[in-house]
Amino acid sequence: MEVRNNYINGQWQASVSGATREVINPSNGEVIALVTDSVAEDSKQAIAAAKAAFYQSGAWRRMAGPKRADLLLRIADAIAARADELAVMDTLDNGKPLREARCDVDDAAACFRYYAGLITKPQGGVYEVSDGFGPMHAYSMHEPVGVCALITPWNYPLLMAAWKLAPALAAGNAVVFKPSEVTPLSAVALFEIFHQVGLPAGTANLVLGSGPAAGQELAASHDVDMITFTGSTRTGQTIAAAAVGNLKKVGLELGGKSPNVIFADADLEGAVEWAMIGVFFNQGEVCSAGSRILIEESIKDRFVARLAERARAMSIGPGMKDPDMGAIVSAAQLEKVLGHIERAKQQGATLVCGGVRHTAGECAKGYFVQPTIFDNCTRDMDIVREEVFGPVVAIQTFTSEAEAIAMANDTPYGLAGGVFTTDGARALRVVKEIRAGVTWINCYNPTFNEAPWGGYKMSGYGRDLGVNGLLEYQQVKQVNINLQPGPVGWYQR
Ligand code: TXE
């Protein structure tokens, strides 16, 4: 089996470790590819290449914005041209339904287009300043941060790569990218595209390997100016601690336990379907998943009955067959999800449906879990407090708006939240009170390249996407100009 390698300084090369790692199709447990398994030394080489590209050559950061934009547009075109292949790759690698992978590919291409457009728009400002030293004028300009390390998880392999690489490159940085070791394949294809469109050597480097062996160096190195990470809160804390050494800039998009608040006046059928999208989309492996449904007591029984009816009717199977729900990404994640389910049962939550591994027919060897609903959950249960990252939802009830808000915020996380009601003023009031970075009214989970994405509290800091996403990868420089050069007489009084 051919081994996929790192891409460092414009060259494909194997890890110095000589080791390889198997990439598994979670739908059947079979090995679908081999990738090189990097160690800290590979990351050091990639960092050195990025540093030389940024600080010595400077070809990319000095390239005029519109020319950088042209290259990003060519990357978007190339992603679109390989859309079918990339969607299949992410489906086989991650387990998600093919049509969801196709959406990811379209969004990834659109993300490169968005930042290609944004980088050519006005940035910075011009300031009227006081004239204590004589007439002065000030302006600000946006510059790339320098060497940026980008680390992504396995739930949206290509899309998370695009969320970070597109703005980082648009801004003129040099990057080292480490995708999750669980789903590295579409990243390799993306770097083939970078090579094909002619990004200057060293501008974008790819390191394939595990977090502790290859990723930790990216967080700790004093030659890295910035690290951005999407993944678990615990790993985010490790990265933030390692980054302290040179006070590199840090961006973290971490876990969540997001509330989906449904009032009695909501359109019930709509709320049920969006709640399903909220927690079963991508097998529930979504950082923003609406994994806590807070429902007004008077409609709880009707809502739960309908949700369960529709959950039971979902088709489950290999992503390539385009079912409603595919496989959990790995054996380890399957164990984690099943462990959460067992604990919820032990702690007294009422299992309404699912709650088991799905092994029927062609799912026998894969890592499938049935969509799972727990009713009568209470605030002290792990299922209410901890991120599961699987198709499992906890139901709790409330009787007043104030109680709903208090329950929604009763979590260390703050990534997302949703509100369903036909009372517009109440929707706005509740959303305003939810301490989370991404919120939805009468829908759940739609995400747009144009709007900023990120968390409050232990869901991290910094923003992906939108104008904020570009700003993350930029420094702001102040330029002060003396309009009347010459002595000012300060020391002659
Ligand atoms: O995540 P990790 P894992 C949550 C979800 C899931 C749990 C564990 O609850 O069940 O995390 O998943 C790299 N230095 N999320 O173990 O460890 C790693 O190689 C540098 C939420 O896969 O956070 C991978 O590239 N890098 C989430 C990335 O971090 C390190 C998405 C994510 O892995 C590292 C995924 C280290 N010391 C999981 N250790 C979300 N917010 O979307 C690991 N990595």
Give a short summary of the structure.
One of its GO terms (molecular function) is oxidoreductase activity, acting on the aldehyde or oxo group of donors, NAD or NADP as acceptor. Helices cover 39% and strands 22% of the residues. By secondary structure, it is of the alpha/beta class.
Description:
The chain folds into 2 domains: 3-254 and 455-479, Aldehyde Dehydrogenase, Chain A, domain 1 (3-Layer(aba) Sandwich); 259-441, Aldehyde Dehydrogenase, Chain A, domain 2 (3-Layer(aba) Sandwich). The mean pLDDT is 98. It is of the alpha/beta class and 493 residues long. The site of ligand TXE has 28 residues, from α8, α9 and α12. Ligand TXE binds at residues 151-155, 178, 180-181, 210-212, 215-216, 219, 230-232, 235, 238-239, 253-255, 287, 333, 336, 387, 389.
Name its key features.
single chain, 493 residues, alpha/beta, Aldehyde Dehydrogenase, Chain A, domain 1, Aldehyde Dehydrogenase, Chain A, domain 2, 7-stranded mixed beta sheet, 6-stranded mixed beta sheet, 16 helices, binds ligand TXE, Aldehyde dehydrogenase family protein, Ald_DH_N, oxidoreductase, oxidoreductase activity, acting on the aldehyde or oxo group of donors, NAD or NADP as acceptor
Q: What is the element layout, followed by pairings?
A:
Layout: E1 3-4, E2 6-8, E3 11-13, E4 20-25, E5 30-36, H1 40-57, H2 59-62, H3 65-81, H4 83-94, H5 98-118, E6 125-127, E7 136-144, E8 147-151, H6 157-170, E9 174-178, H7 185-197, E10 204-206, H8 211-220, E11 226-230, H9 233-242, E12 249-253, E13 259-262, H10 268-280, E14 292-296, H11 300-312, H12 331-346, E15 350-353, E16 357-358, E17 368-369, E18 372-375, H13 382-385, E19 392-398, H14 401-408, E20 413-414, E21 416-420, H15 424-433, E22 438-441, E23 456-457, E24 460-461, H16 466-472, E25 474-482
Parallel strand pairs: 1-5, 8-9, 8-11, 9-10, 11-12, 13-14, 13-21, 14-19, 18-19, 21-22
Antiparallel strand pairs: 2-3, 4-5, 6-7, 7-25, 12-24, 15-18, 16-17, 20-23
Helix pairs in contact: 1-8, 3-5, 3-7, 4-5, 5-6, 10-11
